[in-house]
Specification:
Layout lengths: L2 H12 L15 E5 L7 E7 L2 E12 L10 E8 L14 H16 L9 E3 L3 E13 L4 H15 L1 E5 L4 E9 L7 E8 L2 E4 L3 H5 L3 E7 L5 E7 L6 H22 L1
Parallel strand pairs: 4-6
Antiparallel strand pairs: 1-2, 2-3, 3-6, 5-6, 7-8, 9-10, 9-11, 11-12
């Protein structure tokens, strides 16, 4: 973004206006489509404004971790597809894609969104592995919140295939995943002294700092991730928490 555009956006913010006309704490319009892939055990597409993310959930039988022999596992991966942004390139996962997956994983894991013990098949030997694959389709800002919401939507729809102890029958999916919590993520950025929720791409490009907050259905904070080089004061964080708690209720209602 050139300096003229940046200066123009900052002047708008000083007048209490955002470039797309939203209020500072307002999120964009959100659309959720379920079961968008017949090959996944659960899938969803989420559009937040013009930002679009697709998530597929696959289930495989694998071995548990040695320190958790009676629990299933979660693995989250993300691909920032070049078709979604001229800034994304093909090849090994970028730092940004790794962080996107890690922050989605953290909210799900720390909130204990899935009862992993119910995914144990044979203690110490076999468990269900929940593979969550995130694909960016169009990046117009705030991929993090869109990816987290799409992951939850896909998990809610996911069904466990039949397993006879030797082979998984993916043509038969009966029981849903044991979901016990819906931890949504809400991001707020800081530009000068202004705090903006659900930033679009232009706003992200000039932000000083960002805070992504994972919120459970009980209104508890389960994860936080700070981004950007700018400094956040205690007052900033307190206000960001208030904004995220309010918006988390709106996001969670969309999942129901």
């Amino acid at each position: 973004m050139d300096n003229v555009s940046k200066d123009y956006m900052i002047k708008l913010l000083e007048k209490g206006r955002r470039i797309d006309g939203r209020k500072f704490d307002e999120i964009r319009n959100i659309e959720i489509s379920y079961d968008v892939s017949k090959h996944a055990e659960g899938s969803a597409r989420v559009r937040v404004g013009d930002t679009e993310v697709l998530v597929g959930v696959k289930l495989e039988v694998g071995q548990p971790f040695p320190d958790k022999p009676n629990e299933g596992t979660i693995i989250v991966g993300a691909e920032m597809l070049p078709l979604s942004s001229p800034d994304f390139e093909s090849g090994p996962p970028s730092i940004d894609s790794i962080e996107l997956a890690r922050v989605v994983d953290r909210a799900i894991r720390e909130s204990k969104a899935i009862d992993l013990k119910k995914l144990c098949i044979t203690e110490g030997e076999k468990v269900w592995m929940v593979l969550i694959d995130i694909y960016t389709i169009n990046n117009q800002g705030n991929l993090q919140d869109a990816a987290a919401l799409a992951a939850l939507a896909a998990l809610k729809q996911a069904k466990i295939p039949e397993y006879d102890g030797k082979k998984v029958d993916y043509s038969k999916r009966n029981n849903k995943l044991p979901i016990v919590s819906l931890p949504v993520e809400c991001s707020v950025i800081k530009i000068k002294d202004n705090l903006l929720s659900d930033p679009n791409l232009d706003e992200e490009k000039i932000m000083d700092a960002k805070l992504t907050i994972g919120v459970t259905g009980d209104g508890e904070i389960c994860a936080m991730q700070k981004g950007g080089k700018g400094i956040l004061t205690i007052e900033d964080i307190s206000k960001m928490l208030d904004i995220s708690l309010k918006n988390s209720e709106k996001l969670r209602k969309l999942l129901k």
